[in-house]
Specification:
By secondary structure, the protein is mainly alpha-helical. It has helices at residues 2-26, 31-48, 56-75, 80-83, 91-105, 114-138, 149-169, 174-194, 200-217, 222-241, 247-264, 266-283, 301-320, 326-356, 379-398, 410-430, 463-483; strands spanning 361-362, 376-377, 435-436, 443-444. A two-stranded antiparallel ribbon has the order 1-2. The protein starts with a helix and ends with a helix.
Length: 484
């Protein structure tokens, strides 16, 4: 009964906060200011909910409702106090959406994780608006497309202060609280700097939880995480200076590498290295009859997430599993290996098939098409895909098991990689958007002009989306085969 009354009061309170923002905007306050005020107020409210509600269920119901309401408002261009300043941003949807996985990983698991739920939203509600204000006021050197040096520095300072103060108030030892604050501050600042279109409101929360839960549970030490951040920095810098990743891609790749080292360990690092090192080496091979492919564009953060996002998500899930559930962690590892095997299969098929095979056959029409056409296959490319998946499978098989007797077999990972690659090819032939290149049968993966309609497939489904589907299929196939 009490939770029901609190739920009603919360709806009225958040609605009133939005109404205040609308009123201020009508009085001449800029929409950028009103958006930050509402953002800070909502995040503070979310951080305080464990003090009033008996459990996370009513808070998740509230969050789910606001995901729908805010999505409708965004699509209809309503509530200009929230949406006029950054029309392209999904931030108002991402904040309530973040409550759902955050509560599932903390509040729903154990009482001692509640503080990490609160800290994550306090960081988002304080550091994010301050960084936006400082960035707008002082500008300065751009670190990424969405972040400036003064803005990121202010985000780091505020997040470290908020995390440290809150953990000290929660009873953490000063040294442990200080170390956690520094690590969480660096990670959340990096995540905020590369996130676009308001999705930092989701990923900053998840990043803070992913750092603080293992530290709070004692499953990883601050020293290990500091070393992991150093390894991630070295990896990202090396990939950037080797012209493999652009700045945002290097940050994302570095964070992924740090997650493998700090949250996973050897069993997770070895397959990750096998995928990245060998796939990157293939991309540098010369094109027969042409020049070396060193002029290939650097991979972006979106491409990093398309190939490694599923594996990264499964790793994060394994890191948040309570210590008494080794079978769940082993299942996560199977999904991780399957996702990487699918990514490797697709990369090997593309890199070797486009270089050394003849004209491929389209899976859509089963006629020969130009090299590099999505959804087309060759014998050499298919053989290369099997070899690519086998490299990850072998790396996983040579790694120490994450749980006794629960490691996925080589055939499980290999089969999952091939399944994922097949799904990738099928999606490329059917739903990936293809655009007319001009007179003749040739098609392009990207439109020549914004209003150009695809000749087949669905607008918005590009190669990155197809790669994400393929790696998700690889992870699902590995889980199924491992379970059987």
């Amino acid at each position: 009964m009490l939770d029901g009354l609190l739920l009603l009061a919360s709806v009225l309170g958040i609605g009133g906060l939005v109404a205040v923002g609308e009123g201020l905007r009508r009085r001449g306050v800029s929409s950028a200011v009103t958006r930050r005020l509402v953002h800070a107020g909502v995040c503070l409210f979310v951080a305080l909910t464990p003090l009033f509600f008996s459990g996370p269920t009513p808070v998740c119901l509230l969050a789910g409702g606001f995901v729908l309401v805010n999505g409708v408002a965004w699509a209809g261009n309503r509530w200009p106090s929230l949406h006029a300043a950054r029309r392209e941003s999904w931030g108002t949807v991402a904040v309530p959406l973040a409550v759902l996985p955050a509560a599932a990983a903390t509040w729903s698991v154990a009482p001692d994780r509640v503080v990490t739920f609160q800290v994550a939203f306090l960081v988002l509600g304080s550091a994010d608006p301050v960084a936006a204000w400082v960035g707008d006021a002082y500008g300065g050197r751009r670190l990424t497309e969405t972040a400036s040096l003064p803005g990121s520095a202010s985000f780091l300072g505020v997040s470290v202060g908020v995390v440290g103060a809150t953990l000290l108030a929660a009873g953490w030892e000063p040294l442990r609280a200080g170390a956690a604050a520094g690590i969480a501050g660096l990670v959340t600042t990096a995540v905020e700097a590369v996130s676009r279109r308001g999705w930092d409101n989701l990923f900053v929360v998840l990043a803070a939880i992913l750092v603080l839960v293992p530290l709070g549970a004692g499953t990883v030490s601050p020293q290990i995480l500091v070393g992991a951040l150093g390894a991630g920095l070295g990896f990202g810098a090396g990939a950037y200076y080797a012209d493999l990743l652009d700045p945002s891609g290097a940050v994302g790749g570095g964070l992924f590498a740090a997650s493998l080292v700090g949250l996973g360990g050897t069993a997770w690092v070895v397959p990750g290295l096998a995928f990245f090192v060998l796939s990157s080496a293939l991309s540098l091979l010369p094109v027969p009859g042409g020049s070396a492919s060193s002029g290939r564009p650097r991979r972006t953060l979106r491409q990093v997430l398309a190939n490694g996002g599923v594996a990264w998500t499964v790793l994060a899930g394994a890191a948040l599993v309570p210590p008494g559930a080794p079978a769940v962690r082993a299942a996560c590892y199977a999904g991780f290996a399957g996702a990487l095997a699918a990514a490797a299969a697709d990369t090997w098929a593309t890199e070797l098939g486009t270089r050394y095979a003849g004209a491929p056959f389209s899976l859509r029409r089963w006629t020969r098409v130009a090299r590099g056409t999505s959804g087309a296959v060759t014998g050499i490319g298919t053989g290369a895909a099997v070899l690519g998946a086998a490299t990850v499978a072998a790396a996983a098989g040579l790694s120490p098991p994450v749980a006794p007797g629960a490691a996925p077999s080589l055939w499980t990972v290999l089969g999952a990689g091939v399944v994922g690659m097949g799904l990738d090819s099928a999606a490329g032939a059917t739903v990936q958007a293809q655009y007319e290149a001009g007179p003749g049968p040739a098609v392009l993966e990207h439109p020549l002009r914004p209003d150009q309609a695809p000749v087949r497939g669905r607008r918005g489904v590009d190669n990155d989306v197809v790669n994400l589907l393929g790696t998700a299929g690889g992870a699902a196939a590995a889980l199924l085969l491992w379970g059987l």
